[in-house]
């Protein structure tokens, strides 16, 4: 009954092992989708029972809400001296040098507009959709931005008082190309954008070394940005406007160091991986695999789960990357902009710029002490039985912007 | 044999449900598919233990985030090992079967923990080791019980041993 005609007996088990290994290595996403569908069916009898791991979320309280509102106002304030509103960053593709922004033609974004933050210019808008836009970073291949050298030192040949050039990207770095007298530049010279009507010049980068085509280090680091200002945009776009809430129900939550350190949810639509689930202002988790009407969701404290957050304390909001330790807690992976120096109570919220996770969702509350213990964060012990999936409204346009080679 | 495999799949699925909702205690749940596969591997011909692995492995894989086929691969490796060595280790008595089952449960745990998976896979926190040890002992005990059952129930022995 179980025979394999034509295959020698000795080879049957090794061949089966090799086939299974190949399937495991080559069909990972398909198998995980299959597992999600099968596990959701297997876990369905547990839904709504005391065994499903569901329960209420804690109330963050008025103090926490006030602190978060103040931090949000500070983070989303427009850059000083420039009449431009901020747009949320949705995706960063460092390899291709692209940022996808939540805000497009209908919000006043035009191709060629400068995108910038307080530190300086990030890049220029190169494609615009009705509700989304794409920024080509200064380092991206094909990027070209006219710049002027700020404060040229005296004594240039011919008594020149100003130097101009085109800042070009080669995919990994930015160079000052097509510049007259580029060899006159020195490390540390500051590049600024050309002044446009009614606006001040924006800092762009500093010359790293001399030469005919000197490399320039951009002042604004695109990694970890949650929003950027775009010239010509009058009204800010709120991240919440980019998502719609779809109700989902909890099937089971197997956390706390168990063999299934993820949750299973069921709802009316198929969710793309990365979609965040939330409730009452709390971040619950993100989809790792999805079936037609179900999804596997990984929480912030689950093993191997990495999440970019803002740690909001008395000294402001600091970006931080945390990773679940598998025992219901988290550990800090890095502080991209530097860690807070002062110890104290902190509130941790999601940061923007990470695909489909809306910013400002509560992750946990705890204490930060740079000298003892680091970040001691308390996450909610249970997940609510009724959840909301933050489904991105413009997924088609986002895919077009991320996938287009132009 | 088909009915036996279906019954074992049902038992495996029940164990998966218990693992899902048991949290940290999940490691104390005995490995039903391993105990069953060891029984089939020691009593039956290779085709049968391969079938047992292909049926029970994916059911057990429901509880392994990021690795649906991993338990199948691990079970197949261990079953092949148990089948090849069944004449070298003629296990006798309840204690012998208990020790034999525990050794294989330990090997299964090690293989599951080191197997490369893209998802979260399986992680065992330091605080979970006492539960994992309990799970190893219970798996050995379950294998001993199943073997005793096969010896004392001729119908089951017949299903397992017929060509």
What does this structure look like?
The complex is a heterodimer of chains A (406) and B (163). By secondary structure, chain A is mainly β. Chain A has four helices and 24 strands. In chain A, strands 1-2-5-4-3-12 form a six-stranded antiparallel β-barrel. The longest helix of chain A is centred in the N-terminal third of the chain and has 18 residues, at 9-26. Chain A is globular and about 85 Å long. The mean pLDDT of chain A is 83. Chain B has 163 residues and is mainly α. Helix content of chain B is 72%, strand content 0%. Chain B has helices at residues 2-22, 32-43, 46-61, 70-84, 93-114, 129-152, 154-161. In chain B, helix 1 (2-22) packs parallel to helix 3 (46-61) and helix 6 (129-152) packs across helix 7. The longest helix of chain B is centred in the C-terminal third of the chain and has 24 residues, at 129-152. Chain B starts with a helix and ends with a helix. In chain B, 52% of the residues are buried. The interface between A and B is large, with 47 and 45 residues.
Can you summarize the main beta sheet of chain B? none
Gyration radius of chain B, in Å: 15 Å
**Strand residue percentage of chain A:** 35-45%
Strand content of chain B: under 5%
Q: What portion of residues of chain B is helical? A: over 70%
Q: Helix and strand string of chain A, N-terminal first?
A: HHHEEEEEEEEEEEEEEEEEEEEEEEEH
Integer average pLDDT of chain A: 83
Distance between the termini of chain B: 11 Å
Mean pLDDT of chain B: 86
